[in-house]
Design goal:
heterotrimer; A mainly alpha; B mainly alpha; C alpha+beta; B: mainly alpha; C: alpha+beta; 4-stranded antiparallel beta sheet; globular
Chain lengths: 336, 361, 165
């Protein structure tokens, strides 16, 4: 692919307007061209999805805000009655509409959010004083079945956010206060959960499940795996703690994740954003290592200068590799 | 998502089939496209990595300069010359550099220059105030300096990432100044400027690669201004001017996206317009900005713009939740009403016969 | 098939939520009324907001007990006086209780005692209504599980909009 052909690029409104302004497209031709790239039925499908998801998201956010207010004047029975009625209504409607339909899936998403609202109000009314992590964990467990059933990427996103919050709060409120040392285990477990989910969607994609094709789901999961591994690996690099075996596990898993991700997203399912995340996490770990060696060997001023050069060098190498890969992949698809 | 965008070739064939193309001018047409549609540039996420690397390296260099004594006293007399020197060196290096490493070095040097010059300006204005205990930060002077730096840099330094960061940096300082000085009118003017800038730059047919950095920086600044505003409601700036600006902006975007004179039939556009006006009455102003970015991004095929709008919504809602000025009960009603307006718009659009007709098509 | 699983699953989730309510309501219905004297809380952690951290005087008494340091989670034995105010007696070791004694389940967190009533949530802006709080009103089930029902002042008069027994 030495020669670049602009005619093969996806047509954009801006380019068509430029052709029109240069007098190369007449007014009717311009109108027909715009209609060709964004025909009304495409606008309709887009508006249908966007209005449904955004409207539902705002409505649910409103419901969450409403119950977070913890109305003193509203009795417990009324609160639970409202949430319960909403929950049953969403579930029945989702069942009747069917889970293959976007409306049904959105209703199930709403029901899943309402389960969380129910648990939060339960904590308010009975003053359970439960750790917030227990609430999120219960929430994740209760909606897991629906999530698995719905084949709906936004619901999986909700589930992952809830689970991540649960583990993070557990680490923050329970583990971190029980001991002062850095704990590797929660990070590694979170990374493993994301890795399992990632493996799941990659397998699903291979099997041709179209609802898993949304690229953002893959990027989020890759971010999850790499970020949750890079933190313990960087800590191990800076302050090795031989007594915590999870630190070693984190390093091994990171090496495994690096090799697997680098190979898979370069050769099996080429994906430049995933490779960029891969490169960025490599940069962080390498620079932590180099920074530590430099700090041991040099005085402050020399250390800072050498560190700056190391950052430029390592990131520069990563960019060089990414550009090379970009060019190598550009022949296949145009995925900006 | 499932629909792939047709290529220019597909569109031109489609027009030729209908006899809407002048065959004599095909060569001109291809030449113009070749000029406009340059080879695929560096994707934004690769640029983000480059930017992050340059930032870290730049800050290491600033600390290095401090360690070796060049700017040890952190005084304007030291900061300004060094800063300007770094900016000139960065610009000169960037114009010449071909290798990735030198480009990164130029960007890092520019970060150093920005930090030192802005630090110097802050020192200069703080000293001229004369009060040692004057806690008011000289944000106005900083904002002016940052805007001047960005304006001076834009034509000189042709690196798109550099342009984006420089403009965004200026916008951040302006936002800080507006909220620090508790100014209402400049806040509206800023929002107006950002909204108009985004709408104009993304839709203007002469916006080329040179101006795309500015367009994206303004879009990011637009979103950022809304997030900062929602977190600082205690300023008490009335919302209605922003609501009017946002409503007009959204209506204009809907109108343009429909192809100027309505290419959609008029009715759906009327429904969308009515929903936009209703939304402008109840919704927190940032949500209109988000919807405008989504519509504009879809019309243009700019996925990054759509992504910016999508990511903005949850961030905005979280900040809205933690803000303390307005009671959660009021916020809950406003959000529920906004959601219901969108769902109602969908319901009305879906019930019209043409929607079903075209769904079948 | 998928439909049937969906309906079964939904029924199960609703049943689980219903069980959560039933559990708490049965404690409210059958539990014994107990008042616990509150201990002063570091004022820095009493930020005005929508919740109030609570600590109890029994915590100091439990800390003096020899059995506390090798226990993890378990039950406390409280003795109730005629005003239903609970006083710590001992850590439960399986022995039978006297008629005026009750069990209160506890967990050890941060080396301290937690009985599950360490914070009181209220509508934002209502903090002043609870400023005179001196006792916590609990309902304690025979199993030792408790529910924080409301806050009382030094004369055991209910505060705020707490549900009265």
């Amino acid at each position: 692919m030495a020669e670049f052909d602009p005619v093969l690029r996806p047509a954009r409104r801006a380019g068509l307007e430029a052709l029109h302004a240069a007098g190369l497209l007449s007014a009717p031709a311009r109108r027909e061209a715009i209609r060709c790239i964004r025909p009304p039925h495409r606008w309709w499908t887009w508006a249908d999805r966007t209005l449904l998801l955004l409207g539902a998201a705002l409505l649910l956010a409103g419901v969450v805000f409403f119950f977070a207010w913890n109305w003193a004047a509203m009795g417990a029975a009324l609160k639970f009655g409202l949430i319960g009625a909403g929950l049953v209504a969403c579930l029945v409607a989702a069942g009747l509409v069917g889970l293959d339909h976007l409306v049904g899936q959105t209703l199930l998403l709403a029901a899943s959010v309402l389960v969380g609202v129910f648990l939060a109000v339960h904590g308010q009314v009975y003053q359970t004083g439960a750790d917030a992590c227990e609430l999120f964990l219960a929430w994740a467990v209760l909606i897991l079945g629906w999530t698995a059933l719905a084949r709906f990427a936004p619901l999986w996103l909700l589930w992952l956010v809830v689970l991540n919050t649960a583990v993070f709060l557990y680490w923050n409120q329970v583990v971190a206060v029980e001991s002062c040392r850095f704990q590797h285990a929660p990070w590694v477990i979170l990374a493993l959960v994301h890795a399992a989910a990632l493996a799941g969607i990659e397998a699903g994609r291979r099997a041709g499940r179209s609802w898993l094709a949304a690229p953002w789901l893959r990027w989020l999961l890759v971010t999850g795996v790499l970020a949750w591994l890079v933190i313990p690996v960087a800590v191990v690099t800076l302050a090795p703690e031989p007594t915590d075996p999870w630190g070693g596990v984190a390093v091994l898993l990171w090496l495994a994740a690096m090799s697997a991700a680098g190979w898979f997203y370069r050769f099996r399912a080429p994906d430049l954003p995933a490779l960029t995340l891969f490169a960025a996490s490599n940069c962080v770990v390498l620079l932590t290592l180099i920074g530590r060696c430099l700090a041991e060997a040099f005085e402050d001023a020399v250390f800072l200068l050498l560190l700056a050069l190391a950052v430029l060098g390592i990131v520069g190498l990563a960019l060089l590799w990414l550009r090379h890969t970009h060019r190598a992949l550009a022949g296949g698809s145009d995925d900006r | 998502m499932t629909d792939r965008d047709p290529s220019y070739g597909d569109v031109l064939r489609h027009l030729a089939d209908r006899g809407l193309l002048d065959p004599a001018r095909t060569a001109d047409l291809h030449a113009l496209l070749a000029r406009r549609e340059a080879a695929p540039d560096q994707p934004w996420y690769v640029s983000a990595l480059a930017g992050a690397g340059a930032w870290v390296a730049g800050f290491c260099l600033v600390l290095f300069l401090h360690e070796v004594g060049a700017i040890a006293r952190w005084e304007a007399a030291q900061l300004l010359p060094w800063g300007i020197g770094f900016l000139i060196a960065a610009t000169a290096l960037r114009r010449r550099a071909r290798s990735v490493f030198l480009v990164q070095l130029a960007l890092a040097a520019s970060v150093v220059g920005h930090v030192l010059v802005l630090g110097g300006v802050a020192e200069l204005t703080r000293r001229s105030h004369g009060h040692v205990f004057d806690s008011a930060e000289p944000t106005g002077a900083l904002a002016a300096a940052a805007v001047l730096l960005a304006a001076a840099h834009y034509p000189l330094n042709r690196d798109p990432l550099h342009r984006f960061l420089s403009v965004l940096n200026a916008a951040v300082f302006v936002v800080v100044w507006v909220f620090d000085a508790r100014l209402h009118v400049p806040l509206y003017l800023l929002l107006l400027l950002e909204a108009a800038g985004v709408a104009f730059l993304f839709t203007w047919h002469r916006t080329s690669a040179d101006l795309r950095s500015l367009a994206y920086a303004l879009a990011t600044a637009f979103v950022l201004t809304h997030v900062v505003w929602i977190s600082r409601l205690e300023l008490g700036a009335p919302e209605w001017p922003a609501r009017i600006v946002s409503a007009l902006w959204l209506l204009w975007i809907l109108h343009w996206s429909a192809g100027g004179r309505s290419l959609l039939r008029h009715e759906p556009l009327l429904v969308a317009g009515a929903a936009a006006v209703l939304l402008a009455v109840v919704a927190p102003p940032g949500l209109l900005a988000a919807i405008g970015l989504l519509v504009l991004g879809h019309a243009l095929g700019e996925r990054v713009l759509v992504g910016l709008g999508v990511v903005f919504v949850p961030a905005y809602l979280i900040v809205y939740y933690t803000e303390l000025e307005l009671g959660l009960d009021r916020k809950a009603y406003l959000l529920m009403a906004s959601g219901l307006i969108l769902l109602a718009a969908r319901w009305v659009l879906g019930r019209r016969p043409w929607a079903r007709e075209e769904e079948a098509a | 098939m998928r439909r049937a699983i969906y309906w079964l699953l939904s029924a199960a989730v609703l049943a689980a939520l219903g069980y959560l309510l039933h559990e708490k309501e049965s404690i409210l219905r059958d539990g014994r009324l107990v008042f616990l004297k509150q201990a002063p809380v570091d004022s820095r952690s009493r930020r005005p907001g929508n919740s109030m951290p609570l600590r109890y005087e029994i915590e100091a008494a439990v800390g003096d007990d020899a059995g506390w340091y090798d226990s993890t989670d378990g039950h406390l034995v409280l003795a109730l006086d005629e005003r239903h105010i609970g006083r710590f007696v001992r850590i439960h070791a399986g022995e039978p209780l006297a008629p005026d004694e009750i069990l209160l389940r506890y967990r050890r967190r941060r080396g301290g005692l937690r009985i599950g009533a360490e914070s009181f949530l209220f509508q934002k802006g209502h903090a002043m209504r609870y400023a005179r709080s001196a006792y916590s009103e609990l309902r304690v089930a025979p199993s030792g599980q408790c529910i924080l029902v409301g806050l009382r002042d030094a004369d055991l008069a209910p505060l705020g909009a707490a549900r009265s027994p």
